[in-house]
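Q: Hi! First time doing this. I have a protein sequence and I read that you can turn it into a structure. Is that right? Here it is:
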Amino acid sequence: MMSSPYYDERETRTAQEREMALMAALQRQIAHAQARSPMFSAILAGVDAAQVRDRQALEQLPVTRKHDLRELQGSHRQGNGASGLFGGFSALVYGPDLPRVFASPGPIYELQGKGRDYWRMGRALYAAGFRRGELVHNAFSYHFVPAGAMMEAAAHALGCTVFAAGTGQTEQQVRAIADLCPAGYVGTPSFLRLIVERAQALGVRIPSLAKALLSAEAFPPSLRDWLITQGIQGFQCYGTADVGLIAYETSAREGLVLDEDLIVEIVHPGTGTPVPDGEMGELVVTNLNPDYPLIRFGTGDLSAVLPGQCATGRTNKRIRGWLGRTDQATKIRGMFVYPSQVAEIVGRFPEIHKARLVVDGRMSSDEMILQVEVGADPDGLQGRIADAMREVTKLRGEVHFTAPGGLPEDGRLIEDRRSYD
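A: Yes, that's right. Below is the predicted 3D structure, encoded as structure tokens:
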């Protein structure tokens, strides 16, 4: 049983020790990406990896943003094997070194290499209180997206056993928790709330569930406090399918501490120029993963650096967490939805003049409503649009009709009205 409050000794390094290690790893990663990743061979053509010795030199390299990744993957899919599938960014090809491939909405395809705790989520699980010899109830999806596999790999790295619950079937989830007595839950915060409420409605006690690592959607203080009244200490982490863990919450509950295996910058949206600490900007990440090297990857997420260090003694920088998007894309029930997907739905129905996807809800209970302007209401149109919305976004939602001219003329395809109090 691990007794240290820290996952490893790197969490308490001095800032100078950490920076020296990261910059040395950066030089190796750039050289590796130039040699093994066809796309970065082109993007970083002429760059001398040995000269990228500090953050000032890193800032001179181009930013590759998430929408670039999606477009480049799409344009390269006629290529051979993994090289074409991943837009030339992967250093791996199909075979034993690339055991799994996943698909996120967009679509964007992600890979899983062979490394232990490939997405490095073990650090976040440990900070949330999970320890060797425990059972973890993993309610992240195992279908198409990598979330379930990300957390399972992390739990196994800690020496935990995993119940592969996946999503849905709330009553069966409750029964499994009551029978198996897991020490904690990993999944979205909204689904944990549904499980607890269903257990109460069924009169089933689930006292073993005392901690949770939550991600993929907002975790508002109101829900955190409600879970505490139910005997569950919930902690959040922030990551992406592309780079894995980015930052994680600790018992101090003061922002999110950055992972030890990334170089993180906060830049002015649309540029590669860093903002001063404390100012909000786009989160840009350079990973040190040799299988899928991403140099200055623009996540499209907004955040800001918090001053000082974590009260737990962890010395890495902290960020405020997810503060929104630089574009109209938004995350609904753990899945990104893009304006291009709304446009795709509209393009399937000549009866639609204009549309806007409105996201609303409270306490992490997302409601998705597609408002559409139609000149007429043919029988069955509403149902067909709802079916198309589910097919394109992989999410259920409502369709509301409005007369032509009923939607604002502001060019927005997605409007997020949710409150995170």
